[in-house]
From TrEMBL:
Residues 1-43 are annotated as: Disordered. Residues 1-29 have a biased composition (Basic and acidic residues). This is DUF3941 domain-containing protein. It comes from Rossellomorea vietnamensis.
């Protein structure tokens, strides 16, 4: 089995991906998409 160190793996910028997701989520929230407005039957 060949030895591969972590340095040979492709670098991923997870923080940038998360920021992009949050930006899209915030835009959708302001646009009123994906609203949860189900009425509850309890008091």
């Amino acid at each position: 089995m060949p030895h591969t160190s972590d340095n040979e793996k492709k670098a991923r910028d997870n923080n940038a991906l998360r920021q992009e997701k949050n930006k899209i989520k915030e835009i959708n929230r302001k646009a009123g998409k994906n609203q949860y407005s189900k009425k509850t039957d309890h008091l």
